[in-house]
Design brief:
381 residues, alpha/beta, Rossmann fold, 2 domains, five-stranded mixed sheet, 38% helix, 20% strand
Length: 381
């Protein structure tokens, strides 16, 4: 089997190219800059366009414009850049502009630790824009997953006409790994849904409510209005309560009602296990080692790696935790995803009138990675 020595940033960029990405705009920022440099070198070779914007605000604005003009855009940044992207992310949600946003996380807040890994943007990307509308965020835990989930992000962006996040981190994206070529798994990325040029076209007509509208054919006969403001199905601003309600419910339900198309996890379940380890991203690698070590030591332990952070893969988490007395959630932050797991388990227990499992957090915010031993220590607590 052929192997190569590669980092996660390179795998993400390759995944974008194989997904049909034809436009990239971004601004240099550690640790995401290598994606910009790779795309600047390789995308023009296949007829694509790369622009280094004057700042992050301009860069994501260009991605939105490119998307609405028919391109398949990618941008990559880190936490401080997501701060600057936030207003235009709202515009992308409102105009239903498909694109992929890579967040190579580093330690915050503010400038934080530019060369220090973290998983601190998990809650940030979920609530990044006003209104609290749902987003889709995927989290690779290995270099091959960086490739595959980037392709999947482009597919989901086209399916739901929405920006999709890929949450990597400094360690996963910058550290070199030996990867077997066969471990890269391609994803079929659907074509954009375009209306017929020979039929009447209404740019924001969606039937049913939870399905995205079709695009006008690019260069075709229709005039299409795009606005940051609440609008009717023709793109005109409106204060009509029924039309406002319909639009806002659509923006939420097109994601919430299709969790089954988005939900992705890796199970490692053991019959009779009373402890469940939960993790995502780079921390999942330590979790997988800990599961194996715990079983070798006679413990009954299950593990679940979350690949689709948002919307929360509720059915999969509940399945994995069905018989657990203790659920351990490990992440490189103060416990952002632990709150989601705890909320879900408490709600499920209350519905069945049974005790909820104990939820334990394993967290590091000192710049070092969580070790397998930190998972194992929770078995003795």
């Amino acid at each position: 089997m052929m192997k190569e020595f590669i980092d996660g940033n390179t795998a993400i960029a390759r995944g974008a190219l194989d997904a049909g990405c034809d436009f990239y705009a971004g601004y240099p920022i550690t640790p995401a800059t290598p994606i910009l440099l790779y795309m600047a070198r390789e995308l023009p070779k296949v007829g694509g366009t790369v622009i280094q914007g004057e700042d992050e605000i301009a860069s994501i604005g260009m991605c939105i414009g490119a998307s609405l003009a028919g391109a398949r855009p990618l941008t990559a940044t880190s936490g401080p850049g997501i701060s600057l992207y936030s207003e235009n992310i709202g515009l992308a949600i409102m105009t239903e502009a498909p694109m992929v946003i890579v967040d190579v996380q580093r330690m915050g807040p503010a400038t934080g630790g530019a060369t220090t890994g973290a998983q601190g943007d998990v809650g940030f990307v979920r609530w990044v824009t006003s209104g609290g509308y749902p987003i889709i965020a995927l989290a690779p835990s290995t270099v091959p997953e960086c490739y595959t989930l980037t392709m999947k992000a482009f597919d989901l962006a086209e399916r739901f006409r929405t920006p999709v996040f890929v949450l990597s981190d400094k360690e996963l994206s910058s550290a070199m790994s030996t990867v077997e070529i066969g471990d890269y798994r391609k994803v079929d990325v659907r074509r954009r849904h375009v209306a017929s040029p020979n039929e009447p076209f209404v740019p924001y007509r969606f039937e049913p409510l939870d399905e995205p509208p079709a695009f006008s054919p690019y260069g075709g006969p229709h005039a299409v209005r795009y606005t940051t403001s609440t609008h009717d199905e023709y793109g005109y601003l409106t204060k009509d309560p029924a039309k406002v309600d319909r639009l806002n419910r659509h923006l939420a339900l097109k994601i919430e009602n299709h969790r089954d198309e988005i939900e992705m996890v890796d199970f490692d379940l053991q019959e009779g296990a009373d402890t469940l380890f939960v993790s995502y991203g780079i921390t999942a690698q330590a979790m997988q080692e800990a599961v194996e070590a715990a079983r070798n030591d006679g413990h009954q332990v299950s593990g679940i790696t979350i690949l689709s952070l948002w919307p929360v893969p509720e059915r999969s988490i509940l399945k994995a935790a069905r018989n657990a007395q203790r659920v351990v959630v490990a992440e490189l932050n103060h416990g952002q995803y632990l709150r989601e797991v705890e909320r879900l388990l408490l709600k499920a227990a209350a519905r069945k009138s049974i005790p909820a499992p104990e939820v334990v957090g394993v967290n590091r915010v000192d710049g070092d990675l969580i070790s397998p031993q930190q998972f194992l220590d929770t078995l003795e607590a």
